[in-house]
Batch of 4 targets.
Target 1
Amino acid sequence: MVTTRHQRSTQKMLPCSALGEVRVDQVLRALGEPVRLEIVRALARAEQPMNCGAFGLTVSKSTSTHHFKVLRESGIIAQYDEGTARYSELRTTELEQRFPGLLTAVLTAE
């Protein structure tokens, strides 16, 4: 389980992959989908956890849930529940340690 810098006792962390076990092709495959890339870019701009309803995605709730799950399972985001809200956070530091420069390259590419 990932401990985020924003974790408080009222949060319930969702399980996510340990980045040491994630392969680069898994990360690239997850980031290769436009909706997931949009989520990651929004999190990078926000620089803080975001409520999953705040992304304004143009897909159904079940489809957005799937996209968040893929990002979590590929080690790109961490998620936690706080009350009735679910928050997502980009694992920037961990990704940079595991795959130096990858996230920056993906986020700055056109």
Target 2
Amino acid sequence: MAAPAPTRALWKGSISFGLVFIPIALHSATVEVRPKMKMLDSETGAPVGYKKVDKVTGEAVSQADVVKGVEVDKGQYVTLTKDEIREALPKTTQTIEIESFVKLEEVPTIYFNKPYLTSPTGKAQKVYALLRDVLRRTGRVGVGRIVVSTKQHLALVLPHGDGLVVNLLRWHEEIRDQTGLQLPGDAKEVGLTDRELKMGEQLVLDLADEWHPERFRDEFAEKVQALIEAKRRAGEVKQVAEIMGDEAVPASAEVFDLTELLRRSLKGGAAPAPSRTPAPAPKKAAARSVKTAANDERERAAAAAKTTGKAKATVKASKRKSA
């Protein structure tokens, strides 16, 4: 059974090429089927976290005293402050600016990292379909860069079914060179005969088939899930408190007239910058709500402290009188 269709947008922005901007929403194209496991206290069932500890003294270290360090030599580290790291982060543009169109077969599969489904937003149906069909006709895919969660990725934009897929790629520096591996040479160098090659070809052709990914299943995930379900029915369940958070989705870019933009793009006109819209009001309201709750909490704490102080003063006065 296929995974359910995505309903939540993880990122909103646009794909751009020439003067054309295509507002899109990014959706996760994959789902983790293996059960997610958390560390729990075997007695109470409470979640168990990781404590930051100085590995030399064994003492706990507060978050404020933790810095990031990069090892430059054996046992020698260069530390970076939060401000220095923040300054190096890529600027979020909410745009996948296609820098070139290449043939898909020219991109080695080892570069492929993580796929995302896309859907057009606003009135972008026509221009979205334009890019999808043009990529199909030319047999090419778009190469650009995207910033997701403060991290910049190389991305491939390619047609998939009725839509477009954005596949995050690994950077060239991340791909290991095969030169140092003890790999065999060609058939002649390793002594393969024509008879052996033909027998190997026959074995492959005997198993030739169409692509049916649904036939292959994660047996480990299925067995663990069955075990979990059996324990759930038996009542072997612990109550664990969950803390949920919302992820803000930035606003999308504006759509321009398609025919005019294509004409101007072919003439080499200047590209208009994608528009930005202010953050939605609910987010501000939520921030105000959090701030108000924090103020209320501080006021209650102050009132409690004042009451406790009065009680202590009364007790001391009573002792002095009795003395």
Target 3
Amino acid sequence: MDWETRQNPERLVKTFRFANFQEAMVFANKVAELAEAKGHHPRLTVEWGRVTVEWWTHSAGGITEKDREMARLTDALLR
């Protein structure tokens, strides 16, 4: 998995790049649908041509197996 681990809080982070804002928004909405379906929600930052997704579990104070699974499912949205 090619996600970066950052601290404070410990979390998985990845920036996805797109050709334009509209494509970035389509992807962000897919991530939102995934999050709702799984009951686990990321921090999403949408900018022109990119979406940064951050997964961690607040109650655990960091990364859990659920976050790793959500990161894998997020990657799969591009396939």
Target 4
Amino acid sequence: MATATPRQRIKDNVTAVTVLLTVVGYALVAATFEGLIPIFPDISRSGVNLLGHAIAVVNTLAVLCLAAGWYWIRNGEVDKHRAAMTTAFVLILLFLLMYLPKVGGGGQKAIADTVPDLVRYSYFGMLFVHIVLSVVTMPVVLYAFLLGTTHTPAELRDTPHAKIGRIAAGSWILSLVLGVVTYVILNHAYSYTFEPAMLVFSL
């Protein structure tokens, strides 16, 4: 009896793999914010700024890839769609590789109290939606991605990939755009306060 390949195992257990990866992802982020992962190197404030800029670039590129992938699938260009969505997924993994050390080894920024109330409330509103969408979107994105990478185009017609993919891409794009907008507000338009990681974790 032939042994199933890793791809086939994932294909046969997309829901279970999605749940597993989602739990691991949530745990990594939560543990990082709680200071429970002591493996991150100390990152200076300038390093945090540099990572923040790089993350904004990566997220902007991910938005462009998602938009292109959406356009291509609506025009029946499956290979281009798959390439664009795979690139977007890789970019998000790259985001995590920068974001977790930035928070765990560097610190966090917060919009300053001196910023006008209208701007601050708008910022908090966008940040709230961005965070909620980031949390809710993760399993949906993973599920759509795993379906797309383990099934042929013909097989995908018998799965909820198209419906789930529209939800995943739409919410993912909105979350990323809001993330970039809040980055611009915090880093380029108005002032912020900075809390080093050790201070954040001691509170």
